[in-house]
Design a protein that fits this description.
Layout lengths: L4 E4 L9 H16 L3 E4 L11 H14 L22 H13 L3 E4 L3 H13 L15 H9 L5 E4 L6 E6 L3 E6 L7 E3 L7 H11 L4 E5 L6 H11 L5 E5 L19 H7 L3 H9 L14 H7 L14 H15 L2 H11 L3 H11 L9 H5 L21 H16 L6 H14 L4 H13 L7 H24 L4 H18 L13
Parallel strand pairs: 1-2, 8-9
Antiparallel strand pairs: 3-4, 4-7, 5-6
Helix pairs in contact: 1-10, 6-7, 9-11, 15-16, 15-17, 15-18, 15-19, 16-17, 17-18
Bound molecules: glutamic acid.
């Protein structure tokens, strides 16, 4: 029998997400329980959005949690490379093979033409699945256009009618109408594959036996299954895990709960506690105990015990579990070592000391100036944000726009924070002092604090952003309507924020 091989396949396009840790954990436990292997593959086919720093943070966070893989971009392995951007030729060959076998075709239509076709389908009330009538050009025409260097993509053929059935380990038979399924692009105009082609080709070549992933991929599975059939490959077992949810049952989102693993690290959660908590998302230990180690989870893991009701990621419960670990599992020496590692270490203290040395009279003043470097989310009330010129809506807008602007910073430095916020003040037609007021309160929770941009650098991006989000939650801003309006406005302003040149303000921004 083939050994069990599972994988996690993150796209390195942002912060390491707790959802990635959750799916990794279940893949890891499933494989290890059966003496199999767990692989990490980086899916960086979106060249525009993928970054090396995001990849590094994902790898570090998973290792920090104690999840280790047998093969991956930082390990040796028989089936590498484990980064899709290094496997381009493999996907091109496979796309060619599908063309030769008549399962895929060259598509030379321009984005404008395609948009028009989509529009027509919408107007005719047709299914959202995107299909082209007469998709293929005559062979000679294709040859001519290729030799003339016309841009093209390669699309897969998909049945027009009927029902696709596939088996999901937790759900049994799932049915999706083919009418809803796109003639998916497999190879993009830049020669890179889309997720669908790369994912299927790699899962096959890397001998993955069980594809265990988030529920959001269910609708893609018909295309994947069809690709396996086109290639004549044996299907893996598909298993879609329920999505993590906020306490109000909505899909876990950073507006309602911080989602970056680095935030939880920065808050002082212990990796064992966070991992244990994630293990309880939809799964329960056979004797229902709440506290268990990774090793115990592996030993007792049974994928059929996963319940499909959306598991709630509740920070209060996580906090409670973390307190149990602190009380029960740490000796005094361990506990002290954790405190040191967390924030009472020399590099961290040195950064703070540099900032406050000229601002205190006696050493005990340190707490007035710097306590907020050692807290989580500050205690705030709406009246902390009262200001003689700024109305509460202005304050909310500043906080929301700053948060969105800061999310675009790739390298967290004072220089980059300063350029973004200075430009934001300009486009919002505010004095820098006015823009910084609510940010100052949100970050430090206080009217007195050392320079706030330096402080944000020290606190790091996750904690800084979480504090801005927390302030917005306290202010109960923005409403749904405001969010829509502000998103549109911000979309327009965004391009202006990263340039360090004076900005001319158009009426549009007012
Ligand atoms: N790259 C996909 C992601 O970011 C992987 C999905 C899958 O596991 O198939 O989640």
């Amino acid at each position: 029998m083939q050994p069990v091989r599972t994988r996690i396949a993150p796209s390195p396009t942002g912060e390491p997400h707790v959802g990635t840790a959750y799916v990794s954990l279940f893949n890891y436990c499933f494989a290890k329980q059966q003496g199999g292997e767990f692989i990490l593959r980086i899916e960086d086919t979106d060249q525009q959005r993928s970054t090396a720093s995001s990849e590094a943070k994902i790898l570090q966070s998973l290792h920090w949690l104690g999840i280790h893989w047998d093969e991956g971009p930082d390990q040796n392995g028989k089936y590498g490379p484990y980064r899709q951007s290094e496997r381009r030729d493999i996907y091109q060959q496979h796309a060619q093979q599908l063309i030769e076998q008549g399962h895929a075709f060259y598509c030379f239509r321009s984005p404008e033409e395609l948009e028009k076709l989509r529009q027509q389908r919408r107007e005719q009330g047709l299914n959202p699945g995107f299909k082209l009538e007469n998709p293929e050009l005559p062979e000679l025409e294709v040859k001519k256009r290729l030799s003339e260097g016309h841009p093209y993509v390669i699309r897969m053929k998909v049945p027009e009618h009927g029902v696709c059935q596939f088996t999901d380990l937790l759900r049994g038979t799932v049915e999706i109408d083919w009418a809803q399924v796109d003639m998916q692009v497999l190879l993009k105009a830049d020669g890179m594959p889309t997720y669908h082609l790369a994912n299927v080709v790699d899962d096959h070549l890397m001998r993955i036996t069980h594809v265990i992933r988030g529920e959001e991929w269910i609708n893609s599975t018909p295309k994947h299954q069809l690709l396996y059939e086109y290639f004549g490959w044996e299907l893996p077992v598909f298993c879609h895990l329920p999505l993590l949810r906020n306490p109000d049952k909505s899909k876990l989102s950073k507006r309602k709960n911080p989602t970056s693993i680095l935030f939880y690290q920065r808050m002082g959660y212990l990796p064992e506690a966070l991992l244990n908590y994630l293990g309880r998302m939809g799964w329960s230990f056979p004797d229902e105990r709440e506290k268990f180690s990774l090793e115990e989870m592996v030993r007792h893991f049974n994928i059929n015990r996963i319940s499909l009701g959306g598991p709630i990621f509740d920070i209060e419960k996580l906090k409670w579990l973390n307190s149990v670990y602190i009380r029960e599992d740490l000796s005094l020496t361990d506990f002290t070592a954790w405190l040191q590692e967390w924030a009472f270490n020399e590099p961290y203290l040195t950064q703070i000391a540099q900032l406050i040395q000229n601002r205190i009279e006696v050493l005990s003043d340190v707490t007035n100036q710097a306590a907020f470097f050692f807290t989580g989310l500050p205690e705030l009330a709406p009246n902390n944000f009262e200001h003689k010129k700024l109305k509460i809506e202005d304050t909310g807008k500043i906080l929301q726009f700053s948060l969105w602007a800061l999310e675009s910073i790739e390298t967290w430095s004072k220089q980059n924070i300063s350029v973004i916020l200075t430009n934001l003040a300009k486009v919002l037609e505010l004095k820098m002092k006015e823009l910084m007021f609510p940010i100052f309160i949100a970050i430090s929770g206080n009217a007195v604090a050392p320079p706030i941009m330096d402080s944000m650098v020290i606190l790091g991006p996750e904690m800084s952003r979480a504090r801005l989000q927390h302030a917005l939650t306290i202010l109960k801003i923005p409403s749904k309507k405001q969010t829509k309006k502000w998103q549109n406005e911000f979309e327009y302003l965004k391009q202006l924020l990263t340039k360090s040149i004076p900005i001319t303000i158009s009426n549009h921004t007012k």
